[in-house]
Amino acid sequence: MDLVGGPLTTPPNSWIPVPPGSGFGLDHLPFGAGSVDGGRPHVVVAIGDHVLDLDAVRKAGHIDLPKAATRDSLDAVLPILPAVREKVARLLTEPSLQRPLAGAVRPVAEIDLRLPFGVADYVDFYSSLVHATNVGRLFRPDGDALPVAWKHLPIAYHGRSGTVAVSGTPVTRPEGQFTTGGTVDFGPTRKLDFELEVGAVIGRPAQGPVPISAALGHVAGLVLLNDWSARDIQAWEYQPLGPFAGKSFATTISPWVVPLEALTPFERPAPSQDPAPLPHLQPAGPTWSIDLTAEINGTPVTKVSFADLYWTVAQQIAHLTANGATLRTGDLLGSGTISGPGPDGHGSLLEMTRDGTRPITVGDAERSWVEDGDTVTLRGAASDGVHHIEFGRCTATVRPAPGGTP
Amino acid sequence: MDLVGGPLTTPPNSWIPVPPGSGFGLDHLPFGAGSVDGGRPHVVVAIGDHVLDLDAVRKAGHIDLPKAATRDSLDAVLPILPAVREKVARLLTEPSLQRPLAGAVRPVAEIDLRLPFGVADYVDFYSSLVHATNVGRLFRPDGDALPVAWKHLPIAYHGRSGTVAVSGTPVTRPEGQFTTGGTVDFGPTRKLDFELEVGAVIGRPAQGPVPISAALGHVAGLVLLNDWSARDIQAWEYQPLGPFAGKSFATTISPWVVPLEALTPFERPAPSQDPAPLPHLQPAGPTWSIDLTAEINGTPVTKVSFADLYWTVAQQIAHLTANGATLRTGDLLGSGTISGPGPDGHGSLLEMTRDGTRPITVGDAERSWVEDGDTVTLRGAASDGVHHIEFGRCTATVRPAPGGTP
After folding, report:
1. Nearest CA distance, B373 vs chain A (angstrom)
2. I need a labelling partner for A266 at 20 to 30 A (CA). Which of A6, A301, B47, B212 fits?
């Protein structure tokens, strides 16, 4: 019985009811880490408006995992996520288990979702051609918009793993250095921005190089990712070693790791690439048609697709490991800001407002940058005639800097 | 009884003998993680030509630590390293313990030293004025040698934690992209380099911002660090997000965490800084007079001092956390390549050979870059009339790339 991915026409029923259009049906089954009572989180799987608590399932003797694997985080589950997901699908479609597993079912609203996995290395790519071109024009108006190597390799930098936080965690406006009219200044950033991204989460570890054909076998799933940025701090510091304090204060990810297998129905061919990449970056592998939006205080400001990216996840992994670098379980690979061709296709305020010079309308207000008290929410969903999966929200509200509002 | 740091004139005796000039006396007591029999490492403290196995000391009931704290790595010890070190000093000067703890003493030569701690975030600074100036001239001959922000903040980037390895681990020559006469190429790097650095290891965690006056209280100790670099890969990729695949293949650290307290006798005032840094980066705090050398195949090629650095460790931490970023136990802060004013004061081959154009003599051979089979060894030591401490070796031998020697 193939419950997982693939071209199902009629998904079987789960004994936990799934409301129509839920986006969390049997064809999805994303994994997270949630606490029921404020205590240690358990590994949980979303189904409809509920979660299945895998720690309770294990205690009831219905899944063969060590105790440590169903507690605290997904760290021990990520390397074997496809197999565990398939097992969960079997449990949920076995009606005789409804009674014995009743205690393992909780309304998702009662769950305090935590950071789903320990972030090993966090790499942020720069894989959107539209975004890289837009940023190049703004940051380097007198130079070439696109860095010379951009179309030859998926450019990336390492970010700060220690400040990756789960959706719902407030973001404090960072303080830092920037220049104001030629003077070097220190204070709360005046240019707080979001970046609409998707992160790939490594499951099975590997010693590099990983051949591109094997790359996606190491990806457990995807999350939404907001790579918060302080543009004034970033602009002052980034030469020649790249972004640091302008990014390292906070990165928000959504709580559900969307299994790669759930995305099979939404696979699309990768965009064509010219010039053709070098052999180790070919074939590019698939991309996925995932609709992504960003909202400020509930007002949508961005609408793009994951398929707008130029470089694929497989290419990112092949590049990242070509030098022999290891992949560890919990490595997080941000796509980079995703901007698309449409008029609302800007994945950051930097691009939307042309570096703050053309404020946008957000509900009844104007915004050049994110203000204190603002809530930024990313959403993702993929749909075809049969399948519909939701990524869940990636949201955070901005608190004033320790030194007050700028 | 103050055994730790401070102006001792006659260090007391340990019942484990310390040969004269050992560099591992009672005034040092560096911590590492070592395996005796190929099994799980224990926390060990170096003394003379021996180590004290803290797991055995705990089992014998002479140190009050949980079992997990004396096994695998220093992770649980780092936040309380000064107190544990003081306790070890007391044990080693209590003659009545020589017999009961005899089983906890092993010759260091029998110990397989492992990565001493789990590397949380690895940040590499760029804090040597001489190095930054040298590199700027080579990489950007037509621009200003020093980036515009360089004297205003300690520039840094995040490196790859997952490829930090302990001394003795071979380094495989990385493959990657670079340009050859205008053509984009892929293969083993032709410009493999070392970087002579010192890394600060975070012990006590913190939520940023950390005031500069409190910064060193979060540092457990120092290690030697070789930030291996592939200059051709780095030159091609580094705009605009900084170094990535040119660095992420390997970083070697020495096995002993040298406690900050052991360095007290070698404290020196920080170098003067002009322009004066902004208030949050003042006062700079001390630096340490540590003699550092690099050798290729046993031939010394570099001689510098840690005190040659422009930015201090306290300033690095104040900058790193000013935006609210957390410090985690096991965070590793590389100094950046240390170059000094002397004729042999180049911390990398890039500088010594002017980007490979002026080979240096190494024993009977010439070297423009590190070749397959070469062994690069960093050493560090600090001495005054009374105290002499050795950092131990940070060494690695280069293996050919999977695709063969270039």
Report:
1. 17
2. A301
B176–chain A Cβ distance below 8 A for any pair: yes
Are residues B316 and B197 part of one domain? yes
A387 assigned to active site: no
Instruction: State whether B151 and B131 are in the same domain.
Output: yes
- For residue B165, the enclosing domain spans 122-399
Question: Quick one: pLDDT band at residue A77, thresholds 50, 70, 90?
Answer: very high
Examine the domain organization and report whether B272 and B338 are in the same domain. Answer: yes
% pLDDT > 90, chain A: 91
Measured between alpha carbons, how far is A265 from A347 in angstroms, rounded to an integer? 25
**Tens-place pLDDT, residues B319-348:** 999 999 999 999 999 999 999 998 899 999
| Cβ <8 Å between A163 and B325 | yes
Distances (CA, A) of B3 to B7, B63, B101, B361: 10, 17, 20, 45
Pairing of strands A105-107, A50-53: antiparallel
DSSP per-residue letters across A67-132: GGGGBS-STTTGGGHHHHHHHHHHHHT-GGGTTTTGGGEEEGGG-EEE--S----EEEE---HHHH
Portion 281-320 of A in contact with B at CB < 8 A = 319-320
On whether both A392 and A327 belong to a single domain, the answer is yes
d(CA B329, CA B66) in angstroms, rounded, equals: 18
Contacts across the A-B interface (CB distance below 8 Å): 180
CB contact under 8 A, A324 and B209: no
Q: Is the pLDDT of residue B144 over 60?
A: yes
* In a shared domain, residues B336 and B214: yes
pLDDT of residue A5: 47
ipTM of the complex as predicted: 0.95
List, for residues A339-365, the tens digit of each pLDDT value.
999 889 999 999 999 999 999 999 999
Q: Are residues A71 and A167 in the same domain?
A: no
Average pLDDT over residues A207-234: 98
Task: Determine the Cα–Cα distance for residues A54 and A405; give it in Å rounded to an integer.
Answer: 44
Residue B405 is predicted with a pLDDT of 67
Q: Three-state DSSP class for A260?
A: helix
Catalytic residue among B28, B131, B319, B387: B131
- Is A224 in the same domain as A129? yes
Cβ <8 Å between A175 and B319: no
Contact criterion met (CB < 8 Å) for A324 and B155:
no
Facing A157 at nearest CB: one of B136, B242, B279: B242
Q: Which residues lie closer than 8 Å to B185 by C-beta, 6 or more apart?
A: B177, B178, B179
- Same domain assignment for residues A314 and A171: yes
The model carries a pTM of: 0.96
